[in-house]
Amino acid sequence: MACGKILILANTAKPGVNEQVESLRAWFERRAEILAIGSSRDPAPAGAGEADLCVVFGGDGTLLAAARALAETDVPLLGVNMGKLGFLADFSVEHMQKHLDAILAGEVRPVARIMLHVHVCRGGTETFSSHVANDVAIAAGPPFRMIDLNVARGDDHVARYLGDGLVIATPTGSTGYNMSAGGPILEPTLEAVAITPVSPHTLSLRPITVGVDEPIHVTAARVNEGSSVFVDGQVPGALADGDVIEIRKADRPARIFPHPGRTFFHTLAGKLQWGQSPHHTEPNDRARSG
């Protein structure tokens, strides 16, 4: 008997995803009413907010797109990994089938992760706006000269950033571009963001973690013709000298189901090899190989 309502969003461009979703349709219908099956690249289907659960087939990028599409709702997300890493989309198809009944019954709870909202204003006119699940990245772009960014939080000036760009990452996005740029890993439930410079033109400028109780403003004092702001690595917006990028905490968080058998730190260790010692060659092995 169907119990609850589910929405299914999928990366329809990824090979095998459509076939996988179709093969599970009857299985889902025995457990819940399917409100709609759609592409994660499209706007949320009509009535999506009525869903009790959104099952997302794809990779981490697909889950981020679904989080933005459903940002005005409270629909929780369950990510089924059909990609490579599967850090956020933490369920295999088999694990999803094993745990879905418990999830629909409320026996597994989603984790609330803050989302952001970014606006770009030019001379008082908004030129770009988007919800943010992962990060806001400001990239120098062609002709790849160093750019000059001034950052404030509320009434406090934070720093002047000269370099190749800047990443403002949520805890969800802290393990993405932010981590690759040398920024800190943040626990998913923190209400904070990491501000991480990309190739800063000074040894003294380091990543910083700040709360999101006040808005962050990034003023583009000097940028390049090809400079851009990117949301979640997926949604681009152009930048020009004098633009002001405002980043605020969104009204609603993304609610994402964690794998019941893994903690955040288990996932870090398993997916990113975090905290694991390097492999050393034993002295006897070196002697034998000499």
Please render the helix and strand layout as text:
Layout: E1 5-10, H1 17-29, E2 33-39, E3 53-58, H2 60-69, E4 77-81, H3 93-104, E5 111-113, E6 116-122, E7 125-132, E8 135-139, E9 147-153, E10 156-163, E11 165-169, H4 177-180, E12 192-198, E13 208-211, E14 216-222, E15 228-231, E16 235-238, E17 244-249, E18 254-256, H5 264-272, H6 283-289
Parallel strand pairs: 1-2, 1-3, 3-4
Antiparallel strand pairs: 5-18, 6-7, 6-17, 8-11, 8-15, 9-10, 9-14, 11-12, 12-13, 14-17, 15-16
Structure characterization notes:
Strand 15 (228-231) and strand 16 (235-238) form a beta hairpin. The chain has helices spanning 17-29, 60-69, 93-104, 177-180, 264-272, 283-289; strands at 5-10, 33-39, 53-58, 77-81, 111-113, 116-122, 125-132, 135-139, 147-153, 156-163, 165-169, 192-198, 208-211, 216-222, 228-231, 235-238, 244-249, 254-256. It contains 6 helices and 18 strands. By secondary structure, the chain is α+β, with helices and mostly antiparallel strands.
Question: What would the keywords be for this entry?
Answer:
35% strand, Rossmann fold, 290 residues, Tumour Suppressor Smad4, 18 strands, 2 domains, alpha+beta, disordered C terminus
